[in-house]
Recover the amino acids of this structure.
């Protein structure tokens, strides 16, 4: 009976071949965009996975504007049909890595990406002269509606003039040059130029974008008996899209699976209050003291410019230097690992304590050198004190000096809060005596200092404080319990 069935199938197959009938092969086009669970025995060496129950899912690397590792506001990633390949990492699980090497990197850079939402498949655009400008070859995602609309065999430079009849503005672009404020799969009418040729068309917001906006490090590594190393992120990490080194993305959820719906999760709640705060938290820090005011100061950091696979550093990775002056002003500058040096130039630098922060934390820095390219006349610092016996309103702190040199003065409160004194305009342009002032609308009782930097060509005549009749006086009521 079994032989009979086999013979019938064989005859049927031969009959189709003779008659020319085609066998239809059904392909599941969505299969390649479905996460594949992996058993622990099948983990591939030197790849990262997210553990979910008893299964593991490989982190996913989508297309990106560049593959560098480190904080970079204009770096972005995008999805068209492949977003389902990003695994979910719930707070009670961990990352896993198997490796052929016994020695592992102490730290791995963890980038966080803002969920920008859906847009036209364009990144790296700029606003110039009333247009959103971009290059087809460099800034348009392939296999998208934008790629079809803007395709031209000989023209690459494109300028969008309007969207749905409204002229474009600079506010539409974020730091990564992505057009914001559009709705998923919504079709928009646009007017645009291909080179100098004017066109109209329709284009759909069919691409989901992410933008790099925070950075951390992962260092909590544990060797398990299951043949892999477990990595855990910091316990207070916010929900969001994260990229682990240059290996791939996962979606971190700061709750246990089942406690909350994905659709109600906020992926963009910032962890740091400012960019400066996150640089300080994830960098190497150096300090130096300037004894006198200088001009044309150069701060040069040198570092190993070779890629380091163990540390996850590549030639194109960003090196960021932040310089903080004694008065709290901040300058940032960038280079790449391949450059080997990162430099910050300043025209004038005050005496006092300076702070230099350099990212990434695992960069092998060989030196930080401070070079005053031209020494100015030695600046003198003078300090004056005064006391406010009881709280008052409308008090002006004044400083008088003679000469035409540069003077910087601050009034400093007991808790360290400082306010700059500003030069008061003098109608007599031939006057040699000048006055700098700062007026408190309300000044509490306490001891105050006035710190003054000046040069030998100026003479400080003294400071004073007095009630300013031009500031409205307010009665201060003290409530005693």
């Amino acid at each position: 009976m079994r032989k009979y069935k086999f013979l019938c199938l064989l005859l049927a197959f031969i009959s189709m071949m003779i008659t020319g009938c085609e066998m239809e092969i059904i392909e599941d086009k969505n299969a390649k965009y479905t996460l594949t669970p992996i058993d622990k025995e099948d983990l591939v060496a030197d790849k990262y996975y997210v553990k979910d129950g008893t299964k593991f899912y490989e982190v996913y690397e989508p297309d990106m504007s560049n593959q560098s590792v480190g904080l970079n506001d204009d770096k972005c990633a995008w999805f068209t049909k492949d977003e389902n390949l990003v695994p979910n990492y719930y707070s009670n699980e961990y990352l896993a890595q198997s490796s052929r090497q016994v020695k592992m990197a102490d730290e791995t850079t963890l980038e966080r990406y803002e969920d920008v939402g859906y847009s036209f498949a364009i990144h790296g655009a700029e606003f110039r002269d009333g247009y959103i400008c971009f290059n087809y070859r460099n800034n348009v995602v392939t296999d998208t509606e934008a790629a079809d609309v803007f395709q031209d065999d000989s023209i690459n430079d494109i300028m969008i003039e309007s969207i749905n009849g409204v002229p474009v503005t600079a506010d539409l672009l974020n730091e990564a040059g992505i057009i914001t404020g559009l709705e998923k799969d919504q079709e928009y009418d646009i007017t645009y130029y291909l080179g100098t040729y004017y066109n109209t068309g329709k284009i759909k917001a069919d691409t989901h974008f992410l933008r790099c906006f925070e950075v951390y490090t992962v260092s909590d590594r544990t060797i398990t008996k299951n043949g892999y190393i477990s990595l855990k992120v910091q316990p207070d990490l916010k929900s969001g899209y994260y990229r682990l080194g240059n290996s791939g993305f996962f979606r971190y959820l700061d709750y246990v699976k089942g406690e909350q719906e994905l659709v109600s999760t906020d992926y963009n709640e910032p962890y740091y209050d400012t960019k400066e705060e996150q640089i300080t938290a994830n960098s190497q820090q150096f300090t130096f003291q300037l004894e006198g005011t200088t001009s044309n100061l150069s701060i040069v950091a040198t570092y190993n410019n070779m890629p380091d696979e163990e540390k996850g550093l590549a030639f194109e990775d960003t090196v960021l230097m932040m310089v903080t002056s004694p008065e709290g002003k901040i300058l940032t500058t960038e280079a790449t690992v391949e450059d080997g040096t990162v430099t910050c130039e300043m025209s004038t630098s005050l005496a006092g304590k300076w702070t230099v922060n350099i990212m990434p934390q695992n960069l092998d820095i060989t030196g930080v050198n401070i070079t005053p390219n031209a020494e100015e006349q030695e600046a003198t610092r003078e300090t004056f004190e005064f006391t406010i016996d009881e709280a008052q309103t409308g008090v002006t702190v004044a400083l008088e000096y003679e000469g035409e040199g540069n003077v910087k003065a601050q009034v400093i409160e007991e808790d360290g809060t400082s306010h700059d004194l500003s030069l008061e305009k003098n109608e007599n342009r031939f006057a040699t005596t000048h006055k700098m002032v700062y007026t408190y609308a309300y000044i509490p009782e306490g001891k105050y200092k006035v710190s003054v930097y000046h040069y030998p060509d100026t003479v400080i005549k003294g400071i004073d404080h007095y009630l300013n009749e031009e500031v409205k006086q307010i009665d201060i009521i003290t409530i005693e319990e």
